[in-house]
Structure formats: structure tokens, C-alpha cells
Specification:
The chain has a 6-stranded antiparallel β-sheet, sandwiched between helices. Strands 6-7 form a two-stranded antiparallel ribbon. It has one domain: 3-Layer(aba) Sandwich (NADH Oxidase). The protein has helices spanning 3-11, 21-37, 67-72, 88-98, 102-132, 153-161, 163-167; strands at residues 41-53, 56-59, 62-65, 78-85, 137-138, 170-171, 177-178, 182-190. It is built from 7 helices and 8 strands. The protein has 216 residues and is an alpha+beta fold.
Length: 216
């Protein structure tokens, strides 16, 4: 069973329970449909980072107040602003399914989330390889909305990336992204190589880590 299928099953909430053949077939078919519909795009930019307090970080003119983020970025002097999307085609596919088949819609949602995560991991690996040539190492992604990193910062983050123009990613007044299967994040970079789990704090059992964000 490949990684994306395992992730989709996790998003569907099966836990340790066995997945029936019908659901597995529906997952496989959903991934095929999403591969045909999705238009993956991403953007990133690297900025100098200053930490101005235990709960404050400065990126260009954007000052962020967040203890969780400041802890995650401790020791970093560079930061990557990152955005990625599966495109409007994935949204249309899910919307069409919702009109006739709710079971398929739920599976498509889970598969799209797994596909987006896989794409983000691929993008981050590419960024990591680039920055290692400069002696820098990445921390896990940290998105607006995690812990006390307020979702309102997403507006300025997307403006700094020029997401609307470059990858077609916009945001509503209620801070919902369009296309919905999209993500923005910041990624710290430092000269110190930390043993941070590539998939973030949710997948790591080192609860006493100095860079851990709150996950509950």
C-alpha cells in the first residue's frame, strides 16, 4: 500500500481498523480522477528572519506575534514562505461528486488532502536540497491557523508570495482559500541541523522537542 493511500485512509478516520475492498477500490479510483483533474502549482520565496522576542518574529515588514511559531523558528535566520495548490480542477471534481454521491465525495476529499500533502513534501524536499548547498537546513512547515499562529497572517503571507498572480490562489474575506485544496506555510531555515520529522509535529513522538508546536 503506497503512502498516499495510507494517508487517505488516515484522513478517513479508519485508525487501526481494516479497510474493506470497496473503499480501497473507491480510493484508487478517486486518485486516478484527481490525477486527471488536478493542476499542481507552488511558489516559494526566501526572506531574512529576525526574532524580536519570545513571541515575535519579523519577516520583512510583517511582524508575527506567536509563541508557537517563535519556538519552532528558534535559531533560524532565514525563512521560506510557501504556497501550493491542487488547482480549481480538483475543486470542480469534488463539487460534481457532491451532487450525486456523498460517499465518493468524502473519499475524494480525503484523497485530495493526501495528494496535497504528498505534493508539499515533494516541494519541501526540493527546497531543502537547494538550501543545503548554502549550509542551511529546514524545519517542518508551519501554517497559519496552527496553535497561536493566527489565520489572519495568511493575508499578508499570500500577498508577499503574489499567490493570486503566480499560482491562482486567492482567499475570501472569511480566510477560506480558493482553490480549497491549497496550503500556505512558513518554513524556518538555520545553519544547525535539527532532527525534525519531515512530516511535522503530528507525526513525531518527541514531545519534549524545543521546536515542537502545539498539536492539540
Amino acid at each position: 500500500m503506497d503512502t498516499m493511500t495510507k494517508e487517505a485512509i488516515r484522513y478517513l478516520g479508519y485508525g487501526k481498523h481494516a479497510v474493506d475492498d470497496h473503499t480501497l477500490a473507491l480510493i484508487s479510483d478517486s486518485f486516478l480522477n484527481l490525477e486527471a483533474a488536478a493542476g499542481r502549482k507552488s511558489i516559494y520565496r526566501i526572506f531574512d528572519l529576525k526574532q524580536t522576542g519570545d513571541d515575535k518574529v519579523l519577516i520583512e515588514t510583517m511582524e508575527i506575534h506567536s509563541k508557537n511559531l517563535a519556538k519552532n523558528l528558534k535559531g533560524c535566520n532565514k525563512i521560506v514562505l510557501f504556497g501550493a495548490t491542487l488547482g480549481i480542477g480538483a475543486d470542480r471534481l469534488i463539487r460534481r461528486a457532491s451532487l450525486t454521491d456523498m460517499a465518493r465525495t468524502v473519499v475524494l476529499q480525503a484523497c485530495a488532502a493526501a495528494m496535497l500533502e504528498e505534493y508539499c513534501e515533494e516541494c519541501q524536499s526540493n527546497i531543502d536540497r537547494e538550501l543545503r548547498t548554502q549550509g542551511l537546513y529546514l524545519r517542518p512547515r508551519f501554517s497559519p491557523g496552527y496553535g497561536d499562529f493566527d489565520i489572519h497572517y495568511q493575508t499578508q503571507l499570500m500577498q508577499m508570495l503574489d499567490c493570486a498572480k503566480l499560482i491562482g490562489l486567492t482567499m475570501t474575506d472569511s480566510f477560506m482559500m480558493s482553490p480549497t485544496k491549497s496550503v500556505t506555510a512558513v518554513i524556518g531555515a538555520s545553519a544547525a541541523k535539527e532532527k525534525c520529522h519531515s512530516k511535522g509535529c503530528e507525526s513525531c513522538d518527541k514531545e519534549d522537542c524545543a521546536y515542537r508546536r502545539d498539536t492539540i
